[in-house]
Amino acid sequence: MTGSTLDSAPGLPAPETMAATLHAALPQFRQVGWLAETGSTNADLLARIRDDQGPLARPWLLGTHLQTRGRGRAGRTWQNRVGANLMFSCAFDVFLPARRLPTLAPLMGIATCQALRQRIGTTHRARLNMKWPNDLQWDQAKLAGILIESTRSGTAQVADHHVIIIGMGLNLLDARALSRSLDRNIADWAEISAIDPQAASATAADLVASTARAWYEALNQATSHGFVDLPALYAQVDGLAGQQVDVIDDGHLRQTGVACGIDTSGRLLVRSASGTQAVSVGEISVRLRR
User: Are residues 254 and 175 in the same domain?
Assistant: First the structure.
């Protein structure tokens, strides 16, 4: 595809340049790649994991200028255009009991939010927060989404050895058009950069490297020390705190109340007249009541 529009995406360096920059910025990663186009970076990494002849040493990072079959949570399609989105996935080995894997959804959201906040000046930093389980919001408008999948490594020797693939799509441009087409509020990094010089100075590679490094460090911390600090970490980025919320599952209203943080399992706590209940991580969306 050399010389095509995909190799010279507006606002993004050529794929080989992006890969080289990220490889230098992420020495902990054993494989770093960036493509002009692919179906899904999550699917690509899953296929690589399941290839018995493939490389074993992780973590890996794979990004792309364009995804033709990208997926979000609950099977939603990621809408993207060359140069308007940052799309990448990372694969990590984790050693946790299977029952603990859902807790990684909010953990990765928290890590991402904190990493990207560091790319924004202190005056505006708090305007970036997280909507449970792991959507990033700028002024209550969605800036980025995260999809986490897990599989077993073919070389796993212990029951607690899993490989997780974390995929992220971050809007660089097109927020206004996406807001119209999706009929909900969407934000993009250009909007933040327009008012914040520190955000404007961050390159696409900076945003990817900061996020991937935060994922790596958060997973190491959780594996070593568990999730006892998770509620306190979430409180620092909680975009739902004190808000009236509806919990929607499969199109049906399951619960309503006031969001009041998460527990050490990463479950959203919703307080109502009948008491406080924990909402499990899964294909459940939480939305502000209007």
Answer: no
Place of tokens 């919001």: 137
Residues 142 and 203 in one domain: yes
Task: List the domain range (segments joined by +) for residue 279.
Answer: 244-288
Copy the structure tokens of residue 266: 């990463």
Residue whose entry in the numeric block shows the structure tokens 């699917």: 43
- Tokens describing residue 15: 């794929």
Q: How many domains does the chain have?
A: 2
- Residue given tokens 């095509």 in the structure block: 4
Alpha-carbon distance 287 to 243, whole Å? Answer: 9
Query: Which of 215, 235, 255 lies at the terminal end of a domain, its last residue?
Result: 235
Residues 164, 77 share a domain = yes
Shared-domain flag, residues 256 and 196: no
Which residues 6+ apart lie within 8 Å of 176 measured at CB? 186
Cβ proximity of 27 and 188 under 8 Å = no
- Greatest C-alpha distance within the chain: 62
Here the tokens at position 226 are: 């568990």
Query: How many Å separate Cα 19 from the centre of its chain?
Result: 19
Do 18 and 153 lie in one domain? The reply is yes
Return d(Cα 74, Cα 107) in angstroms, integer.
18
Measured distance CA(73)–CA(211) in Å, rounded: 19
Per-residue pLDDT of the chain (290 residues; tens, 9 = 90+): 333 333 434 578 999 999 999 999 999 999 999 999 999 999 999 999 888 666 678 999 999 999 997 665 545 555 567 788 999 999 999 999 999 999 999 999 999 999 999 999 999 999 999 999 999 999 999 999 999 999 976 666 688 899 999 999 999 998 887 777 777 889 999 999 999 999 999 999 999 999 999 999 999 999 999 999 999 999 999 999 999 898 888 778 888 899 999 999 999 999 999 999 999 854 455 665 55
